[in-house]
Amino acid sequence: MYFNRTHKHFGPVFQNRFKSILIENNSYFLKLSQYIYLNPVKAGLVSDPLSYRYSSIREALGKEPSSILDKDIVRLVGETKKSISEYETFIYEGLREDLSEIEKLFQKEEAVLGTNRFSTRSQKKYLRRRVK
Fold first, then answer.
1. What is the sign of the dihedral through the CA atoms of 103, 106, 107 and 111?
2. Fewest C-beta atoms under 10 Å: which of 17, 32, 49, 121?
3. Separation CA 111–CA 105 (nearest Å)
4. CA separation for the pair 107, 100 (Å, rounded)
């Protein structure tokens, strides 16, 4: 209410609920992280994902001490110089890829990232739960 009064805004400040995506395994999670880290570049905010100040990519790549990232995320990237370097290469390779399929996930109410079989099984479980 304070924000609305101060800025002469009406209605909810945040229009949509938080979107969650069900992910099948770690490789799909890494692909999603690639999309997220490259989003500021694709939006034209920066030319290099490392220069976007609101990103945790520097922490994921060990260029800054970890303060935001969950330890499990850092574990997926790896802690050796080689694995971190491979992850950084993987992130930058996404600049040449079409990530529009991942972008579509954020427009769905219940999104699933994985194989067709995983997606179908997950949707069936979700629909069963919703009907009860």
1. positive
2. 17
3. 5
4. 11
Instruction: Please list the alpha-helical segments (H only) found in the chain.
Output: 2-7, 26-42, 57-60, 71-77, 81-93, 100-105, 116-131
User: pLDDT tens-digit profile of 81-129?
Assistant: 999 999 999 999 999 999 888 888 877 767 888 888 888 888 777 656 5
**Helix axes 81-93 and 26-42, enclosed angle (nearest 10):** 60
Amino acid symbol at 26 = N
pTM for this one? 0.72
Amino acid identity, position 126:
Y
Tracing tokens 């770690």 back to the chain, one arrives at: 26
Q: What is the pLDDT of residues 19-74, one digit of tens each?
A: 677 888 888 888 889 999 999 999 999 999 999 999 999 999 989 888 888 777 77
C-alpha to C-alpha distances, 33 to 3, 6, 45, 68, 103, nearest whole angstrom: 32, 36, 18, 15, 12
